[in-house]
Amino acid sequence: MKPRAYIETSIVSYLTAWQSRDLVLAAHQQVTRDWWARRGIFELFVSQFVLDEAAAGDEDAAASRLAALAEAAVIEVTEDAILLAEKLIAGGGLPVQARVDALHVAMAAVHGMDYLLTWNCRHIANATLRGKIEELCREAGFEPPTICTPLELPKE
Length: 156
Description:
This protein is an alpha/beta fold. The protein has a single domain, classed as 5'-nuclease (Rossmann fold, 3-Layer(aba) Sandwich). 51% of the residues lie in helices and 12% in strands. The chain has helices spanning 9-16, 23-37, 48-55, 59-69, 79-90, 99-110, 127-139, and strands at 4-7, 43-47, 73-75, 115-117, 146-148. It has a five-stranded parallel beta sheet. Strand 4 (115-117), helix 7 and strand 5 (146-148) form a beta-alpha-beta unit.
């Protein structure tokens, strides 16, 4: 059985964007492309929240993001996920302005994802928030996914 990975929007954005001149951002883009090339060892999942974010902005860029995500299964938005997202915010796991980020975490947890893959290190892959996010997920009865960047995700 393949590990299950929830692909957050920043991943497909880095994957399909023009190469950045910023060295760190360019490196993250390349790491994302390298990870994407071996994505077949994972079952890929997204939510409608990812699709909505990927569809926003420049029409051509949005089309590229959505095309890349076409192979991922779309998981259902459930009442449990919405309630967990609210708990993540109310419990201090994520700030109020990060509602969609809380929904990404909640969707991954409620649907039993092994990994939540993201470059959003401000709110999601944030070492200072991770412990509280995990605690709140477990208190709600859900095992949190391993939140990580493509740099951290196992190669095999």
